[in-house]
Amino acid sequence: QFPRQCATPEALASGECCPGLFPQQTPNPSDQCGFTVGRGLCVPVIADSRPHGPQYTLDGLDDREQWPLRFFNRTCLCNGRFYGYNCGSCRPGWTGDNCDQPLIVVRKNIQDLRAEERQRFINALDLAKNTIHPDYVIGTRHYSELINPATNATNFVNISIYDFFVWTHYYSVSKTFLGLGQGSAGGVDFSHEGPAFLTWHRFHLMQLERDMQNLLQDASFALPYWNFAIGGNECDICTDDLMGARNNFEQNLLSPNSVFSRWRVVCENVEDYDSLGTICNSTTGGPIRRNPAGNVDRPMVQRLPEMEDVLLCLEVNLFDTPPFFSNSSESFRNTLEGYSEPSGLYNPTVRSLHNLAHLFLNGTGGQTHLSPNDPIFVLLHTFTDAVFDEWLKRHNPDPSQYPLENAPIGHNRQYNMVPFWPPVTNSEMFVTAPENLGYSYDIQWPSRPLSNTEIITIAVIAALVLVTLIFAGASCVVRRKNKKNEALQPLLGESYPRYAEEKENTQEV
Ligand SMILES: O=C1C=c2cc(C(=O)O)[nH]c2=CC1=O
């Protein structure tokens, strides 16, 4: 979670993580954050200290509180379009040596990729799985044990680019360690069951996309998405040219024709980490398990979400609602996350949209501490992010819709998302992607067909309007007739003899 240059006892002791721009050259303290070339400056970290929700009660015990202050209190602040832990890269949406060329990458439906594009994406994932991350290392012990006092060695290790993506997710959902013999406690999840669910996963994907762009030396590389809202019980991307078909002999393993059958998962031994107070390291475990629609004990998760569910959730007006948790009702976030009916109504028995897609996979991809080990995670989350971006576009929410305080720990608007470095707040991801974050989605959202209730309501209203119009029309005609008759009445009324009568009378005389 930290740049290699900061994973030293000296850096930890100083609380400062402001690497230079040219690490291969003799360290030059005045060049921190590319200061000498006008890129950035080493500044104090700002961490959110507003109150959090009642789910977490162990304040003081968890390294992730007020992230990242337990580890570092100074970081690079980059000028203009410069970006990154040493201001050596460009802000999303910009590229080039001087970060002066605009670039918006386009995330496409994986089903629309040509055969060679599919193969290129799979090869890129496999390369990321097998290439040590060039910039970041992970801590494998809690802060109090990060440095061995006897040897002054740190417990940071190398990890591959893809496994770094898996590890950050695991670290964000892991329990709070209470001490040896006391185990670990839940009540924390820095990336789920709260408003940060969407902002956290957005940045998580952006980080992988950027790492893969660097790996491929292709700034235009974009992650594709899986439209999982197809209903039915078939995983349409579980084929050997995409995410791997089912193994013919073992129904919860992948076909040997897929490269993903050779992938080995990390962060499998969660019971050990939680009881021993260790943290997942880069040691690999068993194969990816997946048995789509195969959970016989939960028929509800044997089907994928429908497109109508997505279209309904896009109509939920509020981003999130108190208590900003997995029991929030009429909350767009909780609906897309999948703890509500697609229309927004909270229902504890429901699993919909994102959660349903995870649980449908029924294996590695359905267990929160492990799920990114299955590469379907990437595609499932790009689609979830596409729905989020469409909601932002349609509803154009004020930033104040995102709660400033009293959300679960890690989920307040100004909290730095755990465990990303350099610090990035939830609010920085609560913006439309094409205009602010350098990517867009190639996606056409259908309009929602009307439900039977809506059709009946519209028919009743139309009938009422019609009846009202008919009555109004009829009374208008009657009134007009009356008015016409009135106009024909003689001015002097019946008490005066008519002209003819008068004439008759005169003649008689
Ligand atoms: O990886 C995940 C797995 C999940 C399972 C549920 C659930 O609703 O039970 N939710 C999940 C979220 C994940 O990110």
UniProtKB/TrEMBL annotation:
Pfam families: Tyrosinase. Residues 192-209, 374-385 form the Tyrosinase copper-binding domain. GO terms for cellular component: melanosome membrane. GO terms for biological process: melanin biosynthetic process; melanocyte differentiation; melanosome organization. Pathway: Pigment biosynthesis; melanin biosynthesis. It is found in: Melanosome membrane. InterPro entries: Di-copper_centre_dom_sf, Tyrosinase/Hemocyanin, Tyrosinase_Cu-bd. Keywords: Copper, Disulfide bond, Glycoprotein, Melanin biosynthesis, Membrane, Metal-binding, Monooxygenase, Oxidoreductase, Signal, Transmembrane, Transmembrane helix, Zinc. It catalyses: 2 5,6-dihydroxyindole-2-carboxylate + O2 = 2 indole-5,6-quinone-2-carboxylate + 2 H2O. The chain crosses the membrane at residues 455-478. Gene3D superfamilies: Di-copper center containing domain from catechol oxidase. Its cofactor is Zn(2+); Cu(2+). It comes from the Eukaryota. It is a single-pass type I membrane protein. GO terms for molecular function: metal ion binding; monooxygenase activity. Belongs to the tyrosinase family. This is 5,6-dihydroxyindole-2-carboxylic acid oxidase. It comes from Pyxicephalus adspersus (African bullfrog).
